[in-house]
Design brief:
The complex is a heterodimer of chains A (413) and B (402).
Chain A (H helix, E strand, L loop, with lengths): L8 E5 L6 H8 L3 E6 L23 H7 L3 E4 L5 H12 L3 E4 L5 H4 L4 H7 L4 E6 L14 H7 L21 H23 L4 E5 H8 L4 H5 L23 E4 L2 E5 L4 H17 L5 H5 L12 H16 L3 H11 L3 E3 L3 H5 L2 H5 L4 E5 L4 E5 L5 E2 L17 H8 L4 H10 L3
Parallel strand pairs in A: 1-2, 1-4, 2-3, 4-5, 5-6
Antiparallel strand pairs in A: 7-8, 8-9, 10-11
Helix pairs in contact in A: 1-7, 7-8
Chain B lengths: L7 E5 L4 H11 L3 E6 L24 H6 L4 E4 L7 H11 L2 E4 L5 H5 L3 H7 L4 E6 L14 H7 L25 H19 L3 E6 L1 H6 L2 H10 L16 E6 L4 E6 L3 H10 L14 H6 L1 H12 L4 H10 L4 E3 L3 H6 L1 H5 L3 E6 L3 E6 L3 E3 L17 H8 L4 H10 L4
Helix pairs in contact in B: 1-7
The chains are: A alpha/beta (413), B alpha/beta (402).
């Protein structure tokens, strides 16, 4: 079946979370070739590991962002490796890489060089801060980018240092936004026949994510701050957004305006039925409720009955009732809850992927988007180190088997 | 020349996700028309912050963030003659985007089947919280809430404390990226084959992609991952450290023993490098709490800029915690042209943000400020849809437009 990206070849040199860029293109049917250093990419050292065994071919972090790819080893730091890479570029459509700015140029493999080999090539470069500018040479890791991208300023417990999500997100965010930029360039190439360089900044991706907070500074002169279990603090009185219940936490937000009015009325009915409603809930005119006008006293009247209702039930009970009443309340789910979600099961979200090397199948998160004509698919596991060397070098590029052995001996592959 | 010049996008949209998707297409040249109503305005139009803190339907700086590079058509969709306008719009569009609760577009007569009947090649994007199918399909959500349901809240914060919110509508900025990728690919497919399609984009499913390693840890190992503050197994020190001033912090991540030696020197404590409590990663992980205290004592006497610059100078990953104000003033973002001032009719000049990527040959162009409600009704009807003067005036007098 023809897919969205049938016949599109991607050379993927991305490390860590940025590898999600190639995976997204692979989900749409592109032929993505992961190009790793001989011995394997350093992302293979990142856990968690299959059955807790820390080995380079058992990294679940690697599995997660490199499925739907084939894999070869190639040392582009060697002259032979550079020549082979150029040969690969002749037959490729897209190169995605996450080396520090100037690294590929230093090897003679920058965009200008690749363009002369293949004017249709799109080169997407993902770095913490971008290819040029005052911070371009700054060293970063995920937590550093997260801090510089501003999201950390609104994340965490006010009595502790600000935090990153415990599964670091910054490089994954950069890789995902890079896939969007790559697709814009790809669409353009289908018109013009010409490739281009896509310069992705992880910091910018994170700044895009916190764009909703920008007007609080530009129009109110306020810097929202981290506030644990309430929405980011903006100088006004904040009601909780996370509430304790019998066996965990739920997320419930008291809103104003039209959507708030409907929800607050529905919640008042629920409180009434469970005998937690107070005179306040029975008489409040929710059509004229503006949380910006809240006093401490009224906030307390709103909060106490809710607190009692939530403490009386489990997450499951509360969520079941919330769905019935179409009240936007969500349990604070663990990964286990997510895997057991009836909704995701009904949508056939999970995809079982067989790992020959483990002699076992693993359930993977399914595709992010359901498309009627050209479905996205999870087709294969992430490659082992150099798993497709022979297939790609010999069968597709036409190297002799002896040459492959020589290149291996030289350390190029 | 914009990448999407000539591509026509029709938005029956609300709140964030679908508008954020359309925004990218508009910034790369697409013609985007958003259908809006004065009697039932978008929740973001009536949410602050407002210009000069005075509420007004055209005064929301929050709305302005997501609605540049589009035309606003004010239409009473329930008016008996609205169908005349809607029919023309549906035939005009290459892409139709909507993100109401499932079932709403059927009631409005602009669902996929209705659009396909008059425009068989259309690419139709539906974004919803949980997706168009399944037992939770009718459950709406707001970004600050959905992050609890995607596992992000449980995995954020300290293991001995309540979980922490990411202080913004986190999944609302993951879903539109995937939606935008799907729409661009579908548009290319349509160009190649003449076939349109329906895209069912849930908000939950993209956010789960970003937690895939933790998900595999459960499906393969039955391990339920927990939040761990800023601690990671592969680096120490690895935290945000307090700096001079109120609530100033600098993130520092030491990935190698060499970086550790350099950090000790930068702190003026070279003897720490060989201290058996901290010499190797394993030692530092074992003694992470005293380690964090020692570094925190050093950083507390310096500004976050000083810590960052001192450590970057010796090759240690360090970055100051930037507030929203810092982001707007950030010299790297300014260098990239990330912020671009647009002139809004009622709000005046405001900072619009560019995409996270720069295309070398066909960069984005922010051309149109966020519109006032119905600002382009006449332009859309006459110039884009080709209505005659008579027809437009008749519909206008009938009160079809808002």
């Amino acid at each position: 079946m023809e897919t969205l990206l049938t016949g599109v070849r991607v050379l993927d040199l991305c490390g860590l979370g940025t590898a999600i860029c190639g995976k997204i293109l692979g989900d749409m049917g592109a032929d993505v070739i992961k190009v790793e250093k001989p011995g394997g990419d350093t992302a293979r050292n990142v856990g968690p590991f299959y059955r807790g065994i820390p080995k380079r071919e058992k990294s679940l972090f690697w599995f997660a962002f490199n499925n739907n790819k084939r894999g070869i080893t190639l040392d582009i730091d060697t002259v032979e490796g550079q020549q082979i890479f150029k040969k690969l570029v002749e037959k490729a459509d897209i190169v995605v890489e996450s080396f520090h700015p100037g690294y590929m140029e230093g090897l003679g493999l920058g965009y200008e060089a690749l363009k002369t080999i293949n004017p249709k090539i799109i080169m997407t470069s993902i770095t913490p801060f971008g290819q040029t500018g005052p911070y371009k040479d700054y060293k970063a890791t995920d937590i550093v980018a997260w801090a510089m991208g501003g999201i950390m300023s609104v994340t965490g417990d006010p009595e502790r240092p600000p935090v990153e999500v415990s599964l670091p997100q910054a490089y994954i965010a950069g890789g995902t936004y890079a896939a969007e930029g790559t697709m814009v360039a790809y669409y353009e190439r289908q018109n013009s026949g010409l490739g281009q360089h896509v310069d992705v900044s992880i910091q910018c991706a994170l700044t895009w994510i916190n764009s909703e907070l920008v007007p609080w500074w530009t129009h109110m002169g306020l810097n929202p701050t981290r506030s644990g279990g309430t929405p980011a603090r903006r100088g006004t009185l904040q009601l909780p957004i996370l509430w304790k219940c019998k066996d965990g936490y739920v997320n419930y937000l008291v809103l104003g305006g039209m959507p708030g009015a409907e929800r607050n009325k529905a919640m008042a009915k629920w409180l009434e039925k469970e005998e937690f409603a107070t005179e306040y809930y029975r008489t409040r005119d929710w059509d004229n409720f503006d949380w910006r006008q809240l006093t401490e006293e009224e906030a307390e009247q709103i909060v106490v009955p809710l607190r009692n209702l939530f403490l009386a039930h489990t997450m499951k009970e509360l969520f079941a009732e919330a769905i019935k009443r179409i009240i936007t309340l969500f349990p604070v789910t663990t990964i286990k809850d997510i895997v057991e979600s009836p909704q995701l099961e009904a949508r056939n979200f999970w995809t079982s992927v067989y790992h020959e090397e483990l002699n076992s199948a693993v359930d993977y998160p399914g595709v992010p988007t359901i498309m009627s004509q050209t479905p996205l698919t999870i087709r294969c596991k992430a490659p082992l180190i150099g798993e497709h060397n022979r297939e790609i070098y010999v069968d597709e590029l036409g190297f002799a088997l002896e040459e492959l052995i020589s290149l291996h001996g030289m350390g190029a592959i | 020349m914009g990448v999407f010049d000539g591509v026509k996008v029709l938005c029956f949209t609300y709140a964030g996700t679908a508008n954020i998707t359309a925004r990218v297409l508009g910034m790369y040249g697409a013609t985007v028309v958003r259908v809006e109503s004065k009697s039932r305005p978008c929740n973001v139009r009536v949410a602050g912050p407002f210009k000069d803190n005075i509420p007004g339907i055209n005064r929301s700086a929050y709305y302005a963030v997501y609605n540049n590079d589009r035309y606003s058509l004010g239409l009473d969709m329930k008016h008996p003659k609205a169908k005349q306008v809607i029919d023309r719009l549906l035939r005009w569009a290459d892409i139709v985007a909507e993100n109401f609760s499932p079932g709403t577009v059927e009631r409005l007569g602009v669902d996929y089947a209705a659009v396909k009947a008059v425009n068989p090649e259309v690419v139709y994007l539906s974004i919803s919280s949980q997706g168009q199918t399944g037992p939770y399909r009718e459950m709406p959500s707001y970004g600050p809430q959905l992050q609890a349901f995607t596992g992000h809240v449980y995995l954020t914060g300290w293991p001995d404390r309540i979980p922490n919110q990411i202080g913004l509508s986190y999944p609302d900025f993951i879903c539109p990226v995937y939606a935008c990728i799907a729409v661009i690919a579908a548009l290319d497919y349509k160009r190649r084959t003449g076939k349109g399609q329906y895209i069912d984009q849930a908000n939950v499913e993209p956010a789960l992609q970003w937690l895939a390693p933790a998900i595999l840890d459960y499906t393969a190992n039955k391990v339920v991952e927990d939040r761990a503050g800023n601690s990671v197994p592969y680096a120490a020190p690895h935290n945000a450290y307090p700096c001079k001033g109120e609530d100033n912090w600098c993130a520092i991540a030491v990935m190698t023993d060499e970086e550790w030696v350099n950090l000790c020197q930068a702190m003026g404590k070279p003897e720490l490098a060989t201290d058996p409590m901290f010499a190797t990663l394993l030692d530092r992980k074992k003694n992470e709490s005293p380690l964090d205290s020692i570094i925190g004592e050093w950083t507390a006497n310096l500004t976050s800029d000083e810590v960052m610059e001192k450590l970057q100078a010796v090759g240690i990953p360090a970055g100051k915690l930037q507030t929203i104000q810092d982001m707007v003033q950030d010299k790297q973002l300014r260098h990239r042209g990330y912020w671009q001032a647009l002139q809004h009719a009622e709000i005046g000049s405001y900072e619009a943000h560019n995409t996270a990527y720069i295309l070398s040959r066909t960069p984005s162009e922010l051309r149109l400020p966020s519109p006032c409600l119905g600002e382009h009704t006449e332009y859309v009807c006459r110039e884009l849809l080709g209505m005659s003067d008579e027809e437009f005036i008749e519909l206008f007098n009938e009160g079809v437009f808002e």
